[in-house]
């Protein structure tokens, strides 16, 4: 019973972002995705073009989609490819942090330059790596599910480690800021005390001179 419940929970461990948007054929749309390191991301897109004559959206094989993925922390481009109107792309994050996913059509001029496009995009974060050895040995479906579950758990652990690193960096920055604020406050107090002592001594000398006169 516990094993069945665990197997049913497998689809819940993968983060899936599905959306659709409209844009012109000469536009470029970008999306930010924060990823831990060594995480596989799979994307599936479908592009439709507006047909004025039939007054409907339809897929045109002449319209391709260019996909570019950049790691913002290093500036490395991990994906730079052009595919058909119905295509997929896959990449593995090398460094933790934000990744910029940009898409645009390959139409830059000609009679379809100002065409309207509608694009469906599904992004699957934390996909299981293909197990070639398991396929070659023809393992059972149950073994494959358990292996996939282990891969999902490993992805979650990597993401948790990444979040702990982010929290640790934020805590260190907060402690450094608080320490600087404390020292600045102590310095201000020291200056005020020094100024008060100097004023008291000055007034004392001033009044003593007045008495002597």
TrEMBL record:
Signal peptide extent: 1-18
Record's bilayer topology term: Single-pass type I membrane protein
Official protein name in the record: GOLD domain-containing protein
UniProt cross-references to SMART domains, sorted A to Z: EMP24_GP25L
Keyword set includes Coiled coil: no
Entry's family note: Belongs to the EMP24/GP25L family.
Naturally occurring in which organism (per UniProt): Kwoniella dendrophila CBS 6074
Keyword Transmembrane helix: yes
Keywords recorded for this protein, A-Z: Membrane, Signal, Transmembrane, Transmembrane helix
Localisation: Membrane
Segments passing through the bilayer: 181-203
PANTHER family given in the database record: TRANSMEMBRANE EMP24 DOMAIN-CONTAINING PROTEIN
Entry GO terms, CC: membrane
Xref: InterPro entries: Emp24-like, GOLD_dom
Residues in GOLD domain copies: 28-125
């Amino acid at each position: 019973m516990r094993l069945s419940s665990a197997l049913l929970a497998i689809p819940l461990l993968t983060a899936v972002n599905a959306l659709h948007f409209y844009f012109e054929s000469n536009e470029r749309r970008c999306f930010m995705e924060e990823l831990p390191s060594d995480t596989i991301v799979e994307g599936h897109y479908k592009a439709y073009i507006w047909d004025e004559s039939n007054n409907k959206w339809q897929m045109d094989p002449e319209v391709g989609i260019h996909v570019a993925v950049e790691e913002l922390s290093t500036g490395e481009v991990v994906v730079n490819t052009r595919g058909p109107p119905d295509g997929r792309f896959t990449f593995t994050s090398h460094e933790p942090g934000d990744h910029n996913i940009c898409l645009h059509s390959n139409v830059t001029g000609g009679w379809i330059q100002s065409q309207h496009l509608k694009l469906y995009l599904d992004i699957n974060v934390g996909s299981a790596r293909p197990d070639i050895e398991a396929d070659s040995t023809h393992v059972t479906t149950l073994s494959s599910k358990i292996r996939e579950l282990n891969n999902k758990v490993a992805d979650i652990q990597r993401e948790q480690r990444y979040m702990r690193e982010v929290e640790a960096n934020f805590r260190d920055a907060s402690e450094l800021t608080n320490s600087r604020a404390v020292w600045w406050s102590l310095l201000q107090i020291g200056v005020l005390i020094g100024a008060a002592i100097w004023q008291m001594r000055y007034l004392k000398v001033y009044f003593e001179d007045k008495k002597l006169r």
